TrEMBL record:
It comes from Kordia periserrulae. It comes from the Bacteria. Residues 289-460 form the VWFA domain. SUPFAM superfamilies: vWA-like (SSF53300). This is Ca-activated chloride channel family protein. Transmembrane segments: none annotated. Pfam families: VIT (PF08487), VWA_3 (PF13768). InterPro entries: VIT, VWF_A, vWFA_dom_sf. PROSITE patterns: VIT, VWFA. Residues 21-149 form the VIT domain. Residues 1-20 form the signal peptide. Keywords: Signal.
Length: 719
């Protein structure tokens, strides 16, 4: 019991300062470190519902030895990556698509021959790795990546997401031996190690309205009402440590629905988007059961946990008394509020709020074990329909195993997901919901929790359209995806991709059931838009088919892999089994010797250093920009401990008083240059390391800095 109290008090102290945001940092990594990525810049052109994205990654070798740079970075889960180029000086080399093993062979052969080469691999549908080899001293190598994706509006509002960073992944439940996520991370709050910029242009047939971003400070310019130009301002600090999210709508909340057509050689493609019917005013509400499965692992510690608590509290207090609920918290282990679902009475809701208030984050993220336990919990009754709400940042590496578990248990619960944080694992968050034919939600900041909870409540009221069927008359459509359309709950349009033969004529008929009865809508194919500008349709159709075959499945038919490879090679797409390789003809490194450097990734915004597991690493010392700092005065070695104690008390009086009111003592280790490198707190006779207090101390201004000449440890105790 004594150890539990110590642990609980420690976690309380950590959470008390976890919400503080970081100041600008001056130094980033160890001296003379080779940081290969010089800049990453994105230019986005959104035409109608399709986003065309061009990313330029520039690599530079600032050292003396030839290097191979490795960079793990995220893209949209919907990205169809269809082109890559490598530019050195005035030469541009177009990359070729290969089956993955062949791509590795071509790349390795080029490096051995002393040629510059680049290779792009997909590790997850939203995680890619760039390898650029034989970069010589002072070389500048630019890699251009091109992808497209379809933007699907929700309730008339569009959202474009450009992911910023791959968050650290917990690999404790991964038995495959995967090492892709063993990446170095800069410490929380460290300045970007590379230049980052993004520019977006929106072109629409309808006047554009309400362009905004909650993640970055932006400039918005409207040359005309149907065009918007968006850029980042200079106010953004560390802009690469979070997803860039841009939201906009059309005047009157119109959706650019309709039919797009594209023809190339012997292939013809189409995409059809239809706005769903309006919600029925006669919708009947039925009693529901909710099981909240909440991630409280180390990566959720601090600010993400506070966002989760606000979200969950909002969801709980608005449940009707006819509903039932339960809560399961998980990290390395798990704990539940109750053995059986509780009626949503005011008293029981208060139990949940109290249970929520006392939880603190820490430990691993055993998601599979949590899902297994959640499915095993008893229901409200034998016939009740359960909704499982998983709240997490998704920092795990067992996505496909989670998808498989959900698919195996589809009859037991609908799985909704809430992603918490500025750079969540959208592959997991979106995939779990997609496999369950439900919906995912993202809350990047605490002030979004209320709005996200409201979206969920509106979503689950009742479906807008069920038993949906699409029929083609006089239009020879085939290879249509999705093959079956799930029920439509929110105001999200129906979207289908496909191919067709013959002339673009006939009609499409959509039928279904609403709260008001049978729904039917017809669309004449002749009203569709056939244009060479719709080339993206071939990539989007192929990407959607690959998603259906491979993205969310752990086990599949023997020929599925070959089918995905065929699609990747035919349509020039990066997949799990196909990769881009660009090879320069010039031999620049005859002996082929080089060192491999992993590009350090920014710690995602508001995520603590404790999120990084032992297989990865956190680099860099935290140096804060000081408002007041005098010339360093060297102290003599006499009475060193006393001098250090006086100096520390004079500079950190307020925080010392605050902590000594709660704890028995504080022990501080100071490096010889005066840098505070370690802080411990005394609880019930035991010294406990406190990294949050260390960061908090380093955020404060110092009136006078000392160079002590040697390491010194001081202890402050309550009188």
């Amino acid at each position: 019991m004594k150890h539990f109290c110590i642990f609980l008090l420690l976690l309380i102290s950590i959470s008390s300062f976890a919400q503080k945001t970081e100041s600008p940092y001056l130094e980033i990594l160890t001296p003379n470190a080779v940081i290969p990525l010089k800049s990453t810049k994105a230019n986005v052109k959104i035409s109608g519902n399709i986003a065309h994205v061009h990313i330029a990654q520039t690599y530079q070798n600032t050292g003396n030895t030839p290097i191979e740079a490795k960079y793990l970075f995220p893209l949209s889960t919907q990205a169809a990556v269809h082109k890559m180029q490598m530019t050195i000086g005035n030469r541009t080399i177009n990359a070729q698509i290969f089956e993955k093993q062949e791509a590795q062979r071509v790349y390795d052969k080029a490096l051995k021959a002393g040629k510059r080469a680049a290779k792009l691999d997909q590790q997850r549908p939203n995680v890619f790795q760039m390898n650029v080899g034989n970069i010589l001293k002072n070389d500048l190598v630019t890699i251009d990546i091109y992808y497209t994706e379809m933007l699907v509006p929700l309730a008339g509002s569009y959202e474009f997401v450009f992911p910023g960073v791959v968050g650290p992944r917990y690999t404790g439940e991964n038995t495959s031996g995967e090492t892709n996520f063993n990446q170095p991370y800069t410490k929380k709050g460290i300045a970007d190690t590379f230049d980052y910029d993004i520019n977006v242009q929106i072109n629409s047939g309808i006047p554009i309205a309400d362009v905004s971003s909650n993640t970055h400070d932006i400039n918005v310019h409207y040359p005309i009402t149907r065009k918007a130009e968006i850029s980042l301002t200079s106010k953004n600090q560390n802009p690469s440590n979070r997803d860039f999210i841009l939201r906009y709508s059309m005047r009157g909340r119109e959706i650019q629905s309709g039919l797009l057509l594209y023809e190339e050689n012997d292939e013809q493609f189409f995409a059809y988007m239809m706005e769903p019917p309006k919600a029925s005013v006669n919708m009947q509400t039925t009693a529901k059961e909710y099981l909240f499965v909440v991630d409280v692992s180390g990566s959720m510690n601090g600010y993400p946990m506070e966002v989760s608590k606000k979200l969950l509290r909002n969801l709980l207090v608005n449940l009707p008394e006819t509903d039932h609920y339960n809560i399961l918290f998980f990290a390395g282990g798990s704990s539940t509020l109750s053995n059986t679902p509780l009626p949503c009475t005011p008293e029981n809701i208060q139990k949940g709020v109290n249970f929520l208030s006392n939880i603190r984050g820490g430990g691993g993220t055993n998601l599979l074990n949590a899902l297994k336990k959640a499915y095993a919990l008893p229901r409200m009754d034998e016939t009740s329909a359960r909704s499982m709400i998983v709240i997490t940042d998704g920092y795990v590496s067992v996505e496909r195993e989670a998808f498989e578990m959900i698919e195996t248990n589809l009859g037991q619960a609908n799985v909704f997901t809430f992603g918490i944080g500025a750079g969540v694992n959208r592959y997991l968050i979106e995939g779990m919901a997609k496999v369950s034919n439900s919906e995912s939600f993202i809350a990047t900041e605490k002030n979004e929790a209320d709005a996200v909870a409201e979206k969920f409540r509106n979503y689950i009221k009742s479906p807008l359209l069920t038993q949906i069927r699409i029929k083609a008359d006089g239009f020879n459509a085939y290879d249509v995806t999705p093959s079956s359309i799930p029920d439509v709950f929110a105001s999200r349009p129906i979207l289908v991709f496909g191919k067709y033969k013959g002339d673009a004529k006939g009609r499409l008929t959509i039928t279904g059931h609403t709260g008001n009865g049978v729904f039917q809508k017809e669309f004449n194919i002749s009203d569709g838009v056939l244009s060479k500008d719709n080339e993206a349709l071939k990539y989007l159709w192929a990407r959607k088919k690959i998603e259906r075959l491979d993205d969310y499945k752990r086990r599949f038919r023997d020929n599925t892999k070959q089918e995905v490879i065929k699609l990747g090679l035919q349509y020039n797409l990066v997949t799990q089994y196909t990769s881009f390789v660009a090879v320069d003809h010039e031999v620049v490194n005859k002996n082929g010797k080089q060192i491999t450097v992993k590009q350090p990734l920014p710690m995602p915004k508001n995520v603590n250093n404790s999120a990084v597991g032992a297989a990865a690493s956190v680099k860099g010392k935290t140096f804060i920009k000081r408002k007041k700092r005098v010339a360093i005065a060297k102290a003599d070695t006499k009475n060193l401990n006393e001098k250090a104690t006086v100096w520390f008390r004079e500079n950190y009086t307020k925080i010392i008083k605050k902590y000594l009111k709660t704890y028995d003592g504080i022990r501080v280790e100071i490096a010889k240059d005066g840098t505070i490198v370690k802080v411990e707190i005394l609880i019930n006779g035991s010294w406990i390391l406190n990294e949050v207090l260390l960061e908090r101390i380093n955020l404060l201004d110092v009136n006078e800095a000392y160079h002590f000449g040697q390491k010194v440890t001081i202890t402050l105790k309550n009188a």
